[in-house]
Fold this protein.
Amino acid sequence: MLSYPTVRTSLIFLAIALVGLLFADIAITANNPWRDLGNFFLGILTPNFFSSEGLLTALLRTVAFAFVGVTVGGICGFLLALIYRFLPVRIFCAFIRAIHELFWALIFLQFFGFHPLTGVLAIAIPYSGIFAKVYSEILEEADPEPGRLLPPGTGTIAAFLYTKIPDCWAQLRTYTAYRLECGLRSSAILGFVGLPTLGFYLETSFSQGMYSDAGAMLILFYVLIATIPLWVRPKLLPIYVLGAPFFLGDGLPIVWGNVERFFTEDIIPSPIRDGEGLAGLMPWLEELFANEALPGIWNTIVLTQIALVATGILALLSFPLISNHFGGPIRRTAGHVFLVIARSTPEYILAYILLQLWGPSMLPGAVALALHNGAIIGHLIGRQTNTITLRSDAVTGFKRYTWELVPRVYRSFLAFLFYRWEIIMRETAILGILGIYTLGFYVDSAIQHIQFDRAMVLILITALLNIGVDALGRFIRRKLALQTMPTC
Amino acid sequence: MTFKPIRTLLSSVALTLAFNTASAETFVFTAIPDEDETKLVERFEGIANYLSEELDADVRYIPVKSYAAAVSAFRNNQVQLAWFGGLSGVQARSLVPGSQAIAQGTEDQAFYVYFVAHSSTGLEREDRLPEEVRGKTFTFGSKGSTSGRLIPEYHIRETFGEAPEEVFSRVGYSGNHTRTLRLVESGTYEVGAMNFAVWEKELEDGNIDTDAVKVIWKTPGFPNYQWSIRGDVDENYGEGFTDRVREALLALDDPELLESFPRSAFIPASNDDYEPIRSVAKEIGIID
């Protein structure tokens, strides 16, 4: 078995994660974590939908920010996709998508403040980068044949619209719809930094232990996501897109002088701002690296690798829940519900909940990342097994799982996992804001201390780390000849 | 979804930009989120109503999620007045030329930090920070808090000559004082440092399980919370507006509102009152 490169790669990653566990800070520090967890589930079972009059408004704002952000991101991303073959465009897109929505929001909060533009751009910018990459991949896959059949002299735009688009239309639509779901999640968590979406109230209720209120918000959020096919209809879309900007709320007016100040003063490294010049810059950078960047990078990598392997294990364990090859319809429905809940809950919110219940360590972060990402991959490969037809005399039960199904889906499983590697790292970094000592912790500290120059350097480092992992993930997928699918 | 006509994009962006309608006349203030939000909203809605009446102006309170967000909103002139802690006030005023501290609570002239411990530690109250806290798990409040971070860190460094991360086995930031109390009460952290006024108020309201958590040390006094106002409000809201705000705050005698802070009264304050906070923050390296 060791002769298979996929198995060898898996074992290497497993070993890295095990070594990581030795160094990781894994603990449950709460005195009575199970009582709190019990209270939390009790809260979900006894939701209080009338806790706050702001709840419905928050839900509306969550949808509005998602629509405006994803629309702007989709259009910009599509335009970028058309010129994606140019290296500078690729680098630019890789960079803007390597920075998480919450980091973008924290940056814009410093000069736009609580204006709707902060939330819209926080979603639109990273989504443009993601859309550009995936749209360009989809367009590239389009069949070139129709284009060759056109008469000479056909305009480029006409050729593009009549030969490429029809071929890719279904895929573009599916992927955009999927991003809209992601947009709702992103929009919800923006509330954690103060925007008027669901996260704002969720944070309030959780931090005060009002689990019935929090339960109501989570239930509303799941219903919102689960019913997307019902309320997001092609005919209604123009209404949503045109109407959404009216429901973003007023926020507070932008003072444009702040924008200039942010770029010309705030983010200039303090030694240069104070006129110490380059001589002062080196010790400043050294100190920043030694005390914040390096510990942050180390913790981010350790947690990412543990979460990646945990995600893989959970995906492999959970896909039978929705596979036609096991169990009856009742169990499959229950499996679907579990996976929908696990993947609809943003990992940031999961981590927040678990941190409140178990106390601070890497454990809540690892579990949250594994649950969310594992449920996504488990869902995708579970669905894939439903397309597999086994011989009528094939083994059943555990043997069917180990000998028939896992080997058949293992390659696409690995492809999904390595595809999500970069996503897991981006999330790991952001979890620092919650108090796990990853890069986000130091970014948040710098912002709390009003030292935006330090925050920007740390965000840049986070982005570079992400780009590196993205490249490594692509290298491994190519090396193992794993087919990648963009809709993951 | 994908191919919205360009005009859709333009109109949505234009609308977003046009949505910038909060009237310039509205006087907006915020406060550092140092306690449970529900309490803060209740308290500061009351203040907003009071100020609206006294100043005969439209006054609005906006809640924020972090100390830094309060400072940034003040700096960016999205709020003109703020209820800051000692440290956040020093940070904010150094970023806004001409801004000034105009009022503080009577209690804020000499404010205290309580170090609190879970009963399982067996720690007892002493008149100094007990040596035995070494090796325990410890939580601050917010990273930008005076009584939840700055002053406790200062005393930890004074006592042990080391950074908190070296003294304790685990250092966390709970976010606010109420949460510090809850986390130590539940044993998630063994030791914590918090605002004495929050402790006393929760104790009075019967919200503390005194079998689970107790005060082990009270720090010496230091200047803390204050109302700070931007230097340009007279220009934007009319001559003498700063004085009117100050007078209104000093005249506040609604016992219920005062009790919600909890403060017995507001008295005049000045920027110089907070010089000790600045020097401590500089020493620890929280401000440049």
About this structure: Chain A touches chain B through 62 residues (CB under 8 Å). DSSP finds 21 helices and no strands in chain A. Chain A has two domains: 1-31+283-387+394-488, 53-266. The longest helix of chain A spans residues 277-318.
